[in-house]
Every structure is written in C-alpha cells, then in structure tokens.
C-alpha cells in the first residue's frame, strides 16, 4: 500500500513548502484569478487601442493622396510608432502573465521606442523652426535629452541581459578551480 506521503513529490527548495503569510490557499487563488482578469482587461484595451490607432493611421494615410506636405506623413509616422508602443506594452503584459513576475526589459524597450518616436517628431519640428531662435534651440535641447535617455535605457537593458546570463549568487555549481 502506497502512503500519501510517498506519492507526493518533494521539492529540494524549502521555499516551495512555505505558504504566503496571511492568506489561505483559497485567498491566494482568488487574488491570482483577479490578477489574471485585470491583466486580461488591460490586454483587451491594448488590442482595441492598437486597432483604433491603425484605423486612424489608415484614415490619415488617405489624406496623403490630396496633401503632399510633411504634416500628414508625420502624423502617420507618429501614429504608427504609437501602435508599435502599444504592441510592445501588450507583449510586456503577456510576458508578465506567462512568467508570473514583472519583467523589466519590455518596459525598457517601450521607453526606448517612445523616446525615439519623440526624437523623430521633434526633428521634423526643429527643421521647420530653423532660424526661429529660441524655438529651434528648445527643440534641439529636447532632442539631446531624449538621446541621452535612449542611451541610458539601452545601457540599462544591456546590463539587465548581462545579469540574467550570470549564475545566481547561491548557485552551487562548482567552478573549474574547485574541482
């Protein structure tokens, strides 16, 4: 006769047997379901927003037929970059739900894309403000600050990836010198 303890698989990690303080299994499950519903709602709104933005981009693109100025083209580019940001946010939500933890890298990528989007828009505005003194200078300062932000976010993403490749501090795998 097999006992109940013998059929239960035991984990080597003592933290697996510890329950969250203050919550029963039912309470934890209820919060998990609520969390999934909230993430699902966020995902639905992001998908809806992306489709609405695509429709707006299509409508604005139709305006390019009659108006060959840079304004409608800049609006289309701005909207499409915004769609790209929304899709990356949707990816971040999906990654968070799949891994059951908040992952920083997709949000860093969204910050980089949003900064680049603003750099593109400000560059066109700066070109049209050329020779207007303070207005042009303000645009150039904003572009410079956003460029620094892109570099900082990129370095942060690089360091985060590098840290994820390193073994954990508590990893018990022996090194070559230890053998």
Automatic annotation (TrEMBL):
It is a multi-pass membrane protein. Keywords: Cell membrane, Membrane, Transmembrane, Transmembrane helix. One of its GO terms (cellular component) is plasma membrane. It comes from Blastococcus haudaquaticus. Residues 1-21 are annotated as: Disordered. The chain crosses the membrane at residues 37-56, 76-95, 107-128, 140-160. This is Phosphate-starvation-inducible E. InterPro entries: P_starv_induced_PsiE-like. It is found in: Cell membrane. Signal peptide: none annotated.
């Amino acid at each position: 006769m097999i006992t109940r303890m013998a059929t239960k698989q035991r984990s080597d990690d003592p933290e697996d047997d510890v329950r969250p303080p203050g919550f029963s299994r039912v309470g934890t499950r209820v919060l998990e379901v609520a969390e999934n519903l909230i993430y699902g709602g966020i995902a639905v709104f992001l998908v809806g927003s992306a489709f609405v933005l695509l429709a707006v981009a299509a409508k604005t693109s139709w305006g390019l037929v009659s108006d060959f100025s840079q304004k409608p083209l800049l609006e289309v580019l701005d909207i499409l970059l915004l769609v790209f940001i929304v899709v990356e946010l949707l990816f971040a939500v999906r990654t968070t739900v799949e891994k059951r933890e908040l992952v920083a890298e997709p949000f860093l990528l969204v910050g980089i894309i949003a900064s680049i989007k603003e750099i593109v828009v400000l560059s066109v505005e700066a070109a049209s403000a050329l020779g207007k003194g303070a207005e042009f200078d303000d645009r150039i300062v904003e572009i410079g600050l956003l460029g620094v932000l892109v570099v900082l976010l990129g370095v942060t993403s690089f360091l985060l990836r590098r840290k994820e490749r390193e073994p954990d501090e508590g990893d018990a795998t022996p090194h070559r010198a230890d053998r």
